[in-house]
User: Fold these one by one.
Assistant:
Number 1:
Amino acid sequence: MSYSNQATWPTLPRTERGRPIVLGGDPKGKNFLYTNGHYVVIRDIQNPASCDIYAEHSTTTTVAKYSPSGFYICSADISGKIRIWDTVNKEHVLKNEFQPFIGNIKDLAWSNDNQRIVVVGEGRERFGHVINAETGTSVGEIGGHSGVINSVDFRPTRPMRILTGSEDNMANIYEGPPFKYKTSLQNHTKYVQSVRYSPDGKLFATGGFDGKIFIYNADTYELIGELGPPAHKGGVYAVSWSPDGSQLLSASGDKSSKIWDVATRQAVSTFVMGTDVLDQQVSCLWQGEHLLTVGLSGFISYLDKNNPSKPLRVLKGHNKPITAMAVSEDRKKIYTGSHDGFVTRWSVPSGDQDRVKGQCHTSQVQDMCTTSNCVYTCGFDDTFRKIDTSGDEYAMWTVSGESQPRGISTDGRLVAVAGHKDITIIEGNSKKIVLPISYEASCVSLHPEGSHVAVGSCSDNKVHAYAVTPSELDERATIEHRAAITDVKYSPRGDLLAACDGNRMIRLYSVQDSYAPAHDFDWCFHTAKVNCLSWSPNSLFLASGSLDTSIIIWSVENPSKHLILKKAHPQSQITKIAWIDNNTVVSTGQDSNVKLWDIKF
């Protein structure tokens, strides 16, 4: 057996209210990049479904920027470390790793000769530092600020200058090398959140939480004028220059973005992105002919200069850990639910995505299952909900659980929900059976014929198998494991039940033989807790995902053979796994990424 990664549908940028994020752009105009968790995500700007993910940071990443040559990327994290790695090789070979200061790095910039890097942020002893990209030696101090530095930029032309924006409401200029404080600009009345030089280096712009944007002469540091005024009714989170330097793109907390004519200092276009708090715009990037903005939701919008009322496209997905997944019966759609209660629909194989509309869960989506025309979901808001797959919208159907639901399963007619302290069987739109239980359920699986339901427990470490009758659940078998049961799944044929636990063990049971073990040995090749299981449609293979970041494909006909997909989601546990067909597996992780795998037998 062998495998290959068919596609990766990446996480969105991780956002936080009141905090700008930084988008980086390839100097050749081909890619853009951003960070989430331990990862740097590189996406093709014309075909964003094509992406690459760098996963070598040991702590949360904060910002990444291409070098002017385009051959290297410098990425930074909350510990104050930066890693410089190449963009040419698929392995992204590490060139250098330095620690300019200890603390959260909020922004960084390269000098135009690729030789120097300036980093700024929340350092314990300093808020910024300039180092040599080859040796890590100091080439200047970033002093003169009394608050955290939020933004920094290198002048793209000589003489070299560094521009910073800080929470002390000032923008500072540093001359060098070696770089030393020159002067402060004090026109803003609130935090300065974004500072950027124009491409020709003759001007620079500063944007702040006072909603104002100022344009300055880069040689004399004199104020040329203010855009607006004011530019926005809410705080300005980011500014980005057009390639020719004649216009400026701004993103604001007032839920809008604007294009400004720098010469007249007037708005050319205004993009109203919505009315919800998640429509606040926290970043922007003008990359060639593409204008990108990022909302607080994490959605990436491609703006249309010719039609400000509607974006050209919007990249959606998740930026919080994915906790639930299901594949539609026609195998053309994948549904994923996340920690924040949202559900996203993905199209196979294009990767096109959209967020499911309607009243979603108000907290974590715990599990989901599909029938021919709908998706059933359960969440930590103690409700079961239904999505109409024809319009990918929540139906006006909500059932409150007796206790917090932990898993949901269906045979197409019945729906079984395992709650914290009960098992519920739903038929049609109402509860048919509610069985109180003395143990704490963790997962559930309904037999394909609806005749049995298996419930895994995380309190007594047992699998409880029940026969489903018209009026009650009759317990037929109790199977003991050494650790908490994490998942149970009946095979599509209905002859086997697979169960996994926190002690790395996976075991198959024969349904016809009163749930006796199907083999005289267990599958224990994972190195940490097994989180999830999924059967191939032909019932010949079982896939498992684990805390150890790996996926294993097991053969039922040849139990001694298996295929290990090591580090399927680097630095992230596998949260859910499913088969699209007998040769394609889809997996989700704590990293918010969705990955498709080709399996060859």
Note: The chain has a mean pLDDT of 96.
Number 2:
Amino acid sequence: MRKKKKIDVLKESFGALKNDAFNFDSIGSYFKNKSNRESFHILSDKTCNDLDFEELFMFLDRTNSKVGQQYLYNKLRNIPAQSEALEFKEHLIHKLSQDEQLRVNTQLQLDKLNKTEAYYIASLFQGEYEKAPRWFFVIRLLSFTSLLSLLMIPFNAKMFFVFFGTFIVNIGFHYWNKRNLYKYLGSIPQLLKLNSVAAKLFKITEFKEINQELKSSIQVIKQVRNRMSFFRLEANLQSEFEAVFWGILELIKIAFLLEPLLLFGILKRLDTKRKEIESVYCFIGEIDTLISIASLRKGIDIYCIPTITKSEIRAEKVYHPLIPNCISNTIEVNEKSILLTGSNMSGKTSFIRTIGLNMICGLTINTCFAKVMDFPRLRIYSAIRINDDLINDKSYYFEEVLTIKEMIENASNGQANLFLLDEIFKGTNTVERISAGKAVLSALSNSNNFVFVSTHDIELTDLLTDEYELYHFSEVVNENKVDFDYKLKPGKLKNRNAIRILEINEYPQNIIKEAIAISVELDRLGTDKNIIVDKT
């Protein structure tokens, strides 16, 4: 793509969703191999699955490089202990939003790291390098023999046979090494590009504050640049099928075993430069992430920068960014947690996810999908999407038991937590579900924890009124349709419309009549309330 056309595309796409394929194995590899010990909290795979994290990431990601994409993914899965240099980062985001020339020039540089091979750069400071075998001295000896015999041919023609014999032996060692070489044909050329891009971006005054010590890391990598350029040549020749040059070069490399000598020499040097490589990698990742945040904010109508509080949650006109034309809601949470009631599809679970993902985005990229949002720094745990684990012979209920047990353990460790639950213990019978649910929800809401839980069990609202604020979602049932307004309302749900919805969907009248009769009888006997309360 010509540069002018590329610039036009970058300008037009600022604020727009990406139109790319997402390979989450590659995108998440940096996160999976990073210790993240310094993080306040690491989002578990379970919580990510519950909150549709991959879909959220595809919406948030506006990066221009594979390095930035990996860096953003890692950032979103790690809640930091404190928001460092927040004012400086917001200044940069604002600058990149307003200064189109700066942004586009930066994006043009970052785009050089947008090939799939750039995903492998992180392996150069996270993975284990191939080690030279103990018999590697044989390769040095054969290389020296080839060189010496070639130089001696003008003085003694018989040395040609020594050179030729050594050449035949070298073929085996040369192709043995190909397996090792191919592991680095993607990552090392991309490291050279990474260092080159970083050197250019570091010259920009606005970016120097990201890492003032970066220049020394760039220089360290430059020291091994000449040797590493061999990999760039190798990769280009393979991709362009330049047969003649390739053939000549291959003969030279076989004769003197250049590939194994250069490869293991470079790997030994790079093994001692992991810290410097990671510094350059994070510098590029941070810049790309800041541009991505600027683009995200450009593309949405309502967002806010959250305020970190000590003991309350406040969300004004908060919405779920992945739901088209999502209805926003407002809520304040102080001393009590939140218990939601409502029928299926009324919006309970979506609202719980809305709170969770807004806190994640607020604590990681300082952006919430709301008019105003305030909350403490919380660790986030969830039990929303639970399935049978057939491979390990675990039922739905047993999986839920283990998930909630982990929550209970974390609830009493003195740390601030956010617990998100949907239909607690729905895998068991009514009496035990309500009994266990009440006990668990009381335990989770202790200390400085916040709980957002949904339930169909109206009985729980009576048992938890001292510990939970009650809210509900409701629908309007007309003659032949059901309308949902998705608005959060105070108090518990009072209307029950399940049987009426069956009737609207033309269930047989004998079923409807029997269901109504049984419902009336159960209400008369007090099964819905009194008997259950007594048994708990």
Note: The two ends are 70 Å apart (CA to CA).
Number 3:
Amino acid sequence: MTDGSLLVRDARVLAGDELVRADVRIDGERIGELGPVGTLTAPEVLDAGGRLVLPGFVDAHSHADGAVFAEGVQLALLRQGVTSIVIGQDGVSYAPGDGAYAREYFGALLGDHPGYRGGGIAELLAGYDGTSPINVAALAPLGTIRHGVMGDRADAPTARELGAMRDAVAAAMQEGAVGASSGLDYFPGAHASDAELAALLQPVAAVDGVYVTHMRHGYESQVGIGVAEVAGICREARVRGHVSHLHGPLPLVRRALAEASASGVELSFDSYPYARGCTLLAMAVLPAERLSRGPAAALRWLSTRSAQRWLVEEWLPGLGHRPDVGTDWPALLTVAGVERAEDAWVTGLTIRAAAARTGKTPEAFVVRLLAENALNVTAVMAVPSPRPWNVLARIAELPGHVAGSDGIYIGGAPHPRGWSTFTRFFLRKVVQSGEWSVAEAVEHLSARAARRFDLGARGRVARGWTADLVLLDPAALVDAAGYGAPLVSGGVDDVLVGGRLVLRDGRLTGEHAGRGIRRSRIRTPHDPIEQEPLHV
């Protein structure tokens, strides 16, 4: 037999739904052959020792757009088995354009992108080729595109403006975007009507891309309304749909998805196995109408004494009446990240605890914190009645589910979901409860997302498929991440990306084998060596 470049010896791999012992030979970037243990050879041998060899996991919702170049973030992803991420979420990312809008509005979520100097999706994806060990697929961000054409205006676009935005979406799809995203609780995305969105999604539908959305006020008790709006947009545009970080009461979520399916729209969705969320602190505590004018206008308003007095005396005392915030909101919001180094001591503290240290009221403290950090503050949000694991687990059983961490890696006390979403799913659903077989786990954590987002020959351990491989020891899995102190997961010590070892014995090897993934579809499930990328 012809020697390959690397042999993974004595692995447990999936043959259909069953696990079998095998050797896996890697030829360049692809899996060359699988055979009985001891029958294949290669110049370099990696002893799996009976560990599972699985296709690399796909994080369907990541905010590591700029953070992926940091070694700590790379370890966070690889140690839980993630080899590919999908960025450009919530309608905001660096491309197309000069990146200024993403840095101004979402800088506290995305971090700075050290290599992007402007352009389009082509330039953004090129910046991920050979620069980290992680593969990166990108969505065309409709909020960024709207801002580039219309700024912060809230009115409907003119025919010329709509055409310019549609052209930008078409260009992004031609350059390899896997779909388009909207953030309808963010701005200016919230200004877009359903008709505008459907029009902008026509170039996505033309190449059978996917529409990914943070729904408009469409979570928790409003999940039915949110999903119905998504389904209506997808029907109008004739586009495939995907809902970001879907959460809500289980009966409502189940009914909403079933009604969308009955209307002819099959939605996929992502979720993470945590009850708490994380977002910009300003979104949780400031009036939406003030944020709707853009971050610069919101900051100018917030810097006035009259605005601060009104917030402290009138608006914030009434915040507890909102069901998504809770009556004791200062105790439920924990600062995750700040812009100013002198405020770093605040991270990991609740608003109530931090305010007590300064002698200020929580209302006065949070206003000062946002104003002095130019709104660039993130917060982990607890809820008055957290959803228990058994409910989160049931949502992950619904048709169309994939794992998405919603990982944010900026700040001194970030949410642990970016460090352990995939470990927690595998540990709890496979190892501890047996609710998922290994094959089902691969479907939820890798294969379905690879198909849904057209990530090419990924998601299977089979001849000809891309050698993004994770060596996983179920008995050694450790879900070590916690609120305020995210730690890398345990149980994944060796990872290959594109056939090259990027993680060895739990350490980065320095191999930057990751690439920007251009949309590429496998036309048949057989012999993907022969498949060509999807041309548009």
Note: The domain at 55-278+385-457 is CATH 3.20.20.140 (TIM Barrel).
